[in-house]
Amino acid sequence: MQKTLKNYQNGSKSEERTRRDAAELLNKYGNMSEDALFAALMQEVASEKSDGTFDINELSSSLDKMRPFLSPAQNEKLNHLLGLIGS
């Protein structure tokens, strides 16, 4: 069977899902101020804690993926937020 470029798909299904999820998050949170993002994060954390579904390790792992794209000051703020959330 001969392979053709016509049938070639770039990336896996999980990469496509990750891109789609990232685009949805950008649409939802992309225009928010830093204060509004903080409030939304704290509301989500409070909701998950009350539901018993909050996992600080999962959140930390997800945020670690963003760290290379952040400035040192933004990483410092992120560390501060994780400290507030984890307590």
Q: What topology emerges from the helices and strands here?
A:
Blueprint: H1 13-29, H2 34-51, H3 56-66, H4 72-86
Explain how this protein is built.
- The chain has 87 residues and is mainly α.
- The chain has a domain at 33-87.
- Helices cover 70% and strands 0% of the residues.
- It contains four helices and no strands.
- The protein has helices spanning 13-29, 34-51, 56-66, 72-86.
- It is globular, with a radius of gyration of 18 Å.
- Mean pLDDT is 82; it is low at 1-8.
Distance between the termini: 59 Å
Q: Treating each run of at least 4 consecutive H or I residues as one helix, how many helices? A: 4
Q: Main β-sheet, in a few words? A: none
Order of helices and strands: HHHH
Mean pLDDT: 82
Shape: globular
> Regarding quaternary structure, how should these chains be classified?
single chain
Proportion of strand residues: under 5%
What is the helix fraction of residues, given as a range?
A: over 70%
Number-wise, the strands total 0
Low-confidence stretches: 1-8
Based on helices, strands and strand pairing, what is the structural class?
mainly alpha
Radius of gyration, CA atoms, in whole angstroms = 18 Å
